[in-house]
């Protein structure tokens, strides 16, 4: 019988393959991190848009007379411009009630986005 080879440690080829596999894994994690950051940004924008829509709906509920309109809001921290439009439909869903629909739209990185809030105001 021949002598057994001394097999301590790893060869250079094994190290290269291991580093290659590690590099592919780290690139995959970096891609996932970018997707998570995009999702977080979109979530922040949608939250601000929903807040702007709810604020306008509450403001219109307190107003004596409501009419259609439009305004803009600029988020200076992120450099985003939000366009807020509201539409008033009197006597809907029934007489002495008014439906108000507020839509907030903005231009996202990948597509245009919007959030819509509807409320019914009871006329007094």
Structure report:
The chain is an alpha+beta fold and 124 residues long. It has one domain: Pantoate--beta-alanine Ligase, Chain: A,domain 2 (2-Layer Sandwich), CATH 3.30.1300. Helix content is 41%, strand content 32%. It contains one helix and four strands, in the order H-E-E-E-E. The chain has a four-stranded antiparallel β-sheet with strand order 1-2-3-4, covered by helices on one side. The radius of gyration is 29 Å and the shape is rod-shaped. It starts with 11 loop residues before the first helix and ends with a strand.
How is this fold's topology laid out?
Blueprint: H1 12-62, E1 69-75, E2 80-90, E3 97-107, E4 112-122
Antiparallel strand pairs: 1-2, 2-3, 3-4
Short structural summary:
The chain has 124 residues and is an alpha+beta fold.
- Helix amount: 40-55%
Largest sheet: 4 strands, antiparallel
| CATH class descriptor | Alpha Beta
Count of strand segments: 4
Question: Which oligomeric form is depicted?
Answer: single chain
What would you call the structural class? alpha+beta
Q: What is the terminal-to-terminal distance? A: 105 Å
Distinct helical segment count: 1
Name the CATH architecture: 2-Layer Sandwich
| Tertiary shape | rod-shaped
Keywords:
1 helix, single chain, Pantoate--beta-alanine Ligase, Chain: A,domain 2, 124 residues, alpha+beta, 4 strands, four-stranded antiparallel sheet
